[in-house]
Sequence to fold (392 residues):
Amino acid sequence: MFSGKMVQQYIDTLINNLLGLQGYQLILAIVFAGFYLIRLLYLFLFTGKVLFVRKPQEQKPVPVSLIYTVRNEEERLRRNLPPVLSINGVDFEVIVVDDVSQDNTLQVLGMMRERSTRLKVTMLHQETRYSIKMAQNIAIKASGCDWVLQVPITYENASPEWISGITSALGENKNVVIAYTGVLPEGGLAGILYRIENFLLFTRSVGYILNGLPFVYAEENVALLKKKYFEVGGHGLKINEPYANLELLINHIIRKESTQVLFQASTAIKKTEPIRWHDYADLLKKSIRIEKHLTSSKKLMLAFDEATKLVYFPLLVVTAVLLFDIWPFIALLVVIQLISRMVIIKMLQNRLNERKIFLSSLMYDLFVPYFRFFYRWVFNQKGQKQKWKIKV
Fold:
């Protein structure tokens, strides 16, 4: 058993070792302390700040146009659209644009339109390279409401709480209303990694919004004031971007003061779709491309965040080895940081009802930044080669 005197002696020795650091050891300690504070501040001021997002006050609901762009989705239309059309007590319309389907999508939509006056159906008449953007443009032009909301057809069992929560947040002084879109767990490593990456991207986006550097990584379940779409010329010069659609336009007009974040399970949607490795890769590619289109200040902040995260873990290992005499103090700092992150991530996942990815998300956030850094480099190199081939 340790006596009080022995504990006091150990603490005194540790303090003396700290005060006795000199030369490269002192420099290393100062550098580590700087990186530690940066990562801790980012944890609390960005990720942790998301916990303070509160449900907006109840106000008069505003009508919204739900936009679906579909291709060969007759089965999902039969299963997922009727629950939306049957919602009562909320003022909204549904616009479905058929993207040159080869199955019975148009026939299914025709039968549904006969049974529901709130459903509008239109279509693209020929195959185009960027047909999703063209379909969105058609849907927004056909919209009879001031607000539009992109919805995935893979969203099952739509609830009145979801759409009423969205419409109640569409205030007069808002241009963008952001809610969460996740994926229901179906097992498999690719699905787990996709869900974790998707969750972390959303929380990162919200953290940046709250700190005056707003942007989004996803267009689904994000409401946009329709007139803003036309003010910036629609998809315009971004029509050739293969990995992002309305996100690029939203990021062009988004401002902190005119953006409402809904960070609760009632307004979140969960898609039911099988996730494969290419889906996870596409999610990474999409986030990389979206970040390339951000303003310089946002790109600089994101780069600083990623760089300090990449350096921090190797620096921690080196510091613990070379400053072994003060390892208990270093361990205490790491424990404080780890517990803080665990509490924050768990609370955020509970708020969104995002289950069964808690421990895996902690491990993911520790090691995947290195993979993402490598993947970003490879992806950018391939992009440069493709540009070179086109020029030649």
User: Anything to note?
Assistant: Residues 94 and 119 are 5 Å apart (CA to CA).
